[in-house]
Amino acid sequence: xxxxxxxxxxxxxxxxxxxxxxxxxxxxxxxxxxxxxxxxxxxxxxxxxxxxxxxxxxxxxxxxxxxxxxxxxxxxxxxxxxxxxxxxxxxxxxxxx
Amino acid sequence: xxxxxxxxxxxxxxxxxxxxxxxxxxxxxxxxxxxxxxxxxxxxxxxxxxxxxxxxxxxxxxxxxxxxxxxxxxxxxxxxxxxxxxxxxxxxxxxxxxxxxxxxxxxxxxxxxxxxxxxxxxxxxxxxxxxxxxxxxxxxxxxxxxxxxxxxxxxxxxxxxxxxxxxxxxxxxxxxxxxxxxxxxxxxxxxxxxxxxxxxxxxxxxxxxxxxxxxxxxxxxxxxxxxxxxxxxxxxxxxxxxxxxxxxxxxxxxxxxxxxxxxxxxxxxxxxxxxxxxxxxxxxxxxxxxxxxxxxxxxxxxxxxxxxxxxxxxxxxxxxxxxxxxxxxxxxxxxx
Lengths: 97, 336
Hints:
Chain A has helices at residues 34-45, 70-74, and strands at residues 10-16, 23-30, 53-58. By secondary structure, chain A is of the alpha+beta class. Chain A has a 3-stranded antiparallel beta sheet with strand order 2-1-3, covered by helices on one side. Chain B is 63% helix and 2% strand. Chain B is globular, with a radius of gyration of 22 Å.
């Protein structure tokens, strides 16, 4: 489309739903700058008190792993069950450990 | 929020796309396996071109329906009968705008731009829900839209929360959470009117009479005539057929109408003991297709209002962009 370059840049929005929890990705929006992105994120994603804090990040600033690398990146952890506490048998009388 | 036959073909010629591209046997097999095991497809994953196209068409039609849906109700904000009803209506219309935004964002993850989608809407190439081409003649219409139109939309949208395309499913979860308020506020507004004067009760009945059939048509053509349904089901985009959703809606609505004290304008509406469902009369599909194809009561007005709003806002979008650009330059100069 001819006017696509006039589109406002895309931002990713992260919301902390309550104090003590992490910010979580909740969606994206178009805005001209960070201040406007925050304002719009507040209007669009927190109309029902869904958040106490907002992060906005230019979508272009995010580097993502490629789907084709999924196997290479994540499969090696599949057979390392000794990394989980349930791998180890401990006598019952020891109790919680 | 409102969806209907979301698989309606848009204007223009869509080339049929081969379902299985044989040169892509590996990724196609992986895609099929994911969809068959009820997994989710994410934006960067390989997907068949036809799947991508179907989603872009469906999600953008859905988004268009949200923002065009703001118009019939927006008409009543300045004429709401009390401050309370006005605040509720503003909140609802704002929600619809938000729902449109969630959906446009989901569609953009498929590689289409916001401008392209809006251009398709404004030029009349893209469809939106036919229901918004009917007028809102009196205040009771606002209540009936909440009760019946949003009620039908919820019926349609809940299965979409399990759609195979991740961003669409996530948008739908968010939307469905907010949608229940829309239906309940409408029903409650009607209950209040039904406790009023005979004239108010007559307004409610009149609105129900006008909206009932267009609402039933919202679920889209009968299964036998539904163009893309089979493929959409196979892909895990659509989960429940048009006719099944319509039946669920009728079954849920009849008791609600009874509590409200209105009749539904269908002499054939009767409980079928054998089927354990309500039977209902024939839907006027000629009217539905006329409305979908641009000849409903308000098609021209809705589109013209939408285009005018967009054009009138152009200078604001340009100015905001120019201002941000100037700020950036200034900051760079100060840093230098």
